[in-house]
Amino acid sequence: MARPSYSKADIHLLHVFSTVVEAKGFSAAQIVLNVSASTISRQIADLEARLGVRLCHRGRRGFRLTDKGETVYAAARTLFSALGQFGEIVEGTRGKLVGKLAIALVDNWALNENALIHRALRKFVTLAPEVAIELFSLAPDDIEIAVQDGYVSLGIGVFHNHKPGLHYETLESEKIGLFAGRGNPLFDVRQGARADKLLTQANFAKRTYLNEDIVAPISKGIASNAVAHQMEGIAMLILTGKYIGYLPQSLAEVWLRSGQMRSVCGGKYDLPSDIKLVRKRGEHANLVVSTFIDCLR
Predict the structure, then answer these.
(1) Percent of the chain having pLDDT more than 70?
(2) What is 8-77's CATH number?
C-alpha cells in the first residue's frame, strides 16, 4: 500500500492546527492567524477529513485534544522543526547565518551578570544579527524533553540524571549554597553542636526538580512541608525566615549583600554544581547552532 503524500495545503492546515493547540483554543488563535473562528473551524475539519481522525473536541467544555490529536500535534512539531533545520542547513551551505535559534535554559539566570549565557548571547547577536532567537525557561527534565523532541536545538542547565540519546558537555561550574533568612534560628549560628542541632530541627524548602539525595545529601534528614518549582520560589520561602534551602550563590548574592540571607553554618554545606550544554546525540549542528556553541565555548 502506497504511503499518502502531503501537499503544501496539508502543511498549512497542520500549521493552523498547531497554532490552535499552542493558543489553547480557537479564540486566541484568531489573533495569531488573523482569521475568523469559523475559518479556523473549517480548516481543522478539513485536516481531520484529510487525516481520517478526530483531532479535538470543541464546544461548551472548551478546546481539548483527543489522544490522536496529541499524536498528530507531536508529529507536526517534529515536522516543523525538521523543515526549519532544513532551511538553516541550506543557508549554512552558503555561509549565511540566518534562521532561528531556540534554546531552553534553567530558570533565574538573569540576575547572574557573569553567567556564560550572557556573554555567549551578546557575542552571537553581534555575529548573527539576522537570526531569530527564541528562549525558554524550563525545569531540567523539560529542557531534556524539548531537546529530544527537537522543539529546541540546545539546552543549558544542571542535569543530574543523564538520558540516553542526549549528549552532555560541561560548560562551567557554579557554587550552590544552603541559606537561611533573617529570623531563622540558623541565621546567627555559624558552627558547633548548637548549629548541628538546629539543622536537624529546621524546615527545608525543596525544589521539585532537584535530586537532593545526589546534590545536597545533608537535606535527606531534614523535615520539609514546602516545595517550589523555580529557584525564585525557594528564595521567597527562605526569606520568610521559616525555611532553609539551596540556591545558586549568584542568585542569593543580592540578599546576602542586603543582610536578608546568610549561608548556613558559614558555608559548610555549600557545593559545586556543573552547568551543562545538552543536545541530541548524533544530530548534525547547522551553522547557526554550531556558531552559538562556539560562542559558549
Answers:
(1) 85
(2) 1.10.10.10
Distance CA(230)–CA(79), nearest Å, equals 31
Q: How far apart are alpha carbons 80 and 134 in whole angstroms?
A: 15
The strand pairing partners of 279, in sequence order, are 167
Angle of the 37-51 helix axis to the 8-23 helix axis, nearest 10: 120
**Residue that the C-alpha cell 542568585 belongs to:** 251
Give which of 117, 126, 75, 134 is closest to 97, Cα–Cα: 126
Nearest to 180 by CA among 227, 225, 270, 241: 241
Which residues in the chain are classed under CATH 3.40.190.290?
Answer: 173-274
C-alpha cell at 265: 553554618
How far is residue 209's CA from residue 203's CA, in Å, rounded to a whole number? 18
Domain 173-274 belongs to what topology?
D-Maltodextrin-Binding Protein; domain 2 (3.40.190)
pLDDT surpasses 50 at 1: no
Q: Which CATH architecture has domain 80-160+281-296?
A: 3-Layer(aba) Sandwich (3.40)
Alpha helices in the chain (DSSP H): 8-23, 26-33, 37-51, 67-93, 116-127, 140-148, 193-201, 212-215, 231-239, 249-258, 287-296
Using pLDDT thresholds of 50, 70 and 90, give the confidence band for residue 210.
low
Structure pTM?
0.61
Amino acid identity at 65: L
Cell of 295: 560562542
Neighbours of 141 (CB within 10 A): 14
